[in-house]
Amino acid sequence: MEKANSEARSQETDNVPRVRNLLLRSMCAVYLMAFVGFYCQAEGLYGDAGILPASRILANGTLKERLSLLQLGPILGLGDGHEAIDLLCLVGATVAFLGLITRAHCRLVSFIVMWSVYFSLVQISQSFRQQADHLLLEAGFLCILLAPTRLSDRRHPMEDIALLLLNGCPLWWSLDGLKRHYETMPLPTSYSWYTYQLPDAFHRASTIYVYLSELVVPWLFFAPSKAVRRYALWWHVFLHLNIIGCGNYGFLSPLVLTLLLTLLDDDDGMVVWLHERLSDEPQRTTRGKGHNQSKKADVDRYGGRLVKGITLLMVAGSWLCFSVGSSDEGQLTFKPSFSRDQYLNFMQTMIRAAPLLVFVLMVKKFLTLLSSQDSVGSLAEGMRQFSKNLGLLVSTIVAFTVFFMSIVPHSRLLPSTSISSPVMTRAYGGLHSLYVVNQYGRHLTKMRPMRREIVLEYSDDLNGTWHEYGFHYKPWTIERAASLPYGWLYFPRFDFKFYDGSGSKTDAQKWIYPLIQRLLEHQRPVLDLLDGRHIPAQAPKYIRTSLYRFSYTSFADRDFWTRERLTDYFNVFSHDDTHLREKLKQMNFRLTVEPESSGSWNWLLRMLLDAIRRFVGAIEGSYLLVGVFIAAGMLIYTQQQQQRTGQST
């Protein structure tokens, strides 16, 4: 009897979906970063006195654009201003925070709420929407298939297919591309500047590392060997930790790192350790654990040899493909030994083979699920089995639909492989409108030859001195103390948008017209998006935008940047400028800011939301996020201590 109970406890413990639980908790952390970052900038970007008011989309947008929970604002007495946006951000952040600190709130309903709320926010993002938003909504939708409905739920049959879909890449021809990228990336940090100073041979070797990361290592994600998948995981962890250090990409890299957890198994040592540290349930010890571990180790005993063999093959292949040699000065030299046509042919083969591999693995998982169905002994058991299979069927149809539609953007990586089927493209467009399937990496397929920056300037005299508006994260000055700050997990989408503007024509950046109008009005919510130490004390008479070329300095220089003014980005604007007013009229932009909309009758809730914003607004976004995660860590630690105290007593 004791042996049977021990085996039952061992089987129950082995059935704990640790990877699923860890993945969902991590997704809550990513959602928390996204909601807090959106909240900090919402009033200045989308409030009634912001750059692109949400009310403009909710009232005059298309049916698809108006599909948002913000439509409930007037019903709650908040109107369609920033108070309704604040409420959604706070609701989403609260649900994400609770899901992060305890598994009891990390369930299906929580992920439905977080996805719905963030989708509503992305709907009104307009010009400030970024690919990180798309990736979060896509991964969040798949997490809905993965999340348990009840806390008591163990492993779901759909889990393997959902995890496979979550396995989720910007190709440079020149080996000098990575060094140029350090200088021209959207929001670089001082780590990027120091890395830029390293020898050219290092940068070319690093570029080969990126090639391997994007073209070779992703194939290891689907290897049957646990050791090989773990090797691929740590390879990409190293890559994305460097990305986090080099640039202020916000929650993008943490999201990718979260998805990489799907490469691990429930019995992986790191997964078990993290699950025990995050679990808010009493830990169970089972007999026979050492036997199980030795059995699993025996199954993957050749994993270490495979990893060594794969590493040697990649080193040898890189050595041959890039003709590694040495110069007369003893420096390493690299030169591709393949032509561009050969490279494109290789890419075509990979683009066509990748979906086929994933499809085969998904079918294999599905057939395994069908073959593992339990036999039915009674009518009641039959009904339960039918209900379970019906849910599995619906989830499988959704999963395969998402997979087939993702082939469309995947095929567009090269023009020669692009799918032109009207049926597929229309179906993809429908899912893309919900951001369930998206295309990524287009902004990295072409390296910028130099860094150009838009600088905002103001003056009260056309012939007088022009002063510059300061930014929190975007390069705008050569002063060392203010030129390359860290945002850590905070995503400054306002600063990030200037990177898009500097690399395109002025006609494509219509959001700058409302920005100039708000600065001429001296609107406080918009000024809060800028560095408060470098804004005028009162509304200026004239504003212009200049285009500068920024270049990194060397170790011998005192500052990080040198800059050179190239030209005017926009002409000089004043408050009564007819051209500015005409552009704003074309955008259906209201020149007057209404103090209250007709639907803002819930004064108590509005006072509460305004009080929260005044309190939070005094804290810079990156520091606020760090404080929130420190609080979450302390709560998780406190739960662990209480759990250990309860077990000891």
Q: How would you classify the helix and strand content by structural class?
A: alpha+beta
Strand order of the largest sheet: 4-3-5-6
Strand fraction: 5-15%
Number of domains: 4
DSSP summary, beta strand count: 6
> What is the 3D form?
globular
The end-to-end distance, rounded to whole angstroms, is 27 Å
Average pLDDT value? 83
* Number of H/I helices: 25
Gyration radius from CA atoms, angstroms: 27 Å
What does this structure look like?
This protein is an alpha+beta fold and 649 residues long. It has four domains: 17-158 and 593-648, no CATH class; 163-280 and 299-337, no CATH class; 340-372 and 379-449; 452-587, no CATH class. The chain has helices spanning 2-14, 18-46, 54-60, 82-101, 108-123, 131-146, 159-166, 177-184, 190-196, 200-215, 226-246, 252-259, 269-278, 289-299, 303-321, 340-371, 379-411, 422-432, 480-483, 493-502, 512-521, 524-527, 578-586, 603-617, 621-648, and strands spanning 325-326, 332-333, 451-459, 467-468, 542-552, 561-574. A four-stranded antiparallel beta sheet has the order 4-3-5-6. Strands 1-2 form a two-stranded antiparallel sheet. α2 runs parallel beside α5 (108-123), α11 (226-246) packs across α15 (303-321) and α17 crosses α18 (422-432). Residues 1-13, 168-174 and 285-289 have low confidence and may be disordered. Involved in the maturation of specific proteins in the endoplasmic reticulum. The chain crosses the membrane at residues 21-39, 84-101, 108-128, 201-221, 233-264, 343-363, 390-408, 615-637. Residues 436-570 form the Lipase maturation factor 1/2 C-terminal domain.
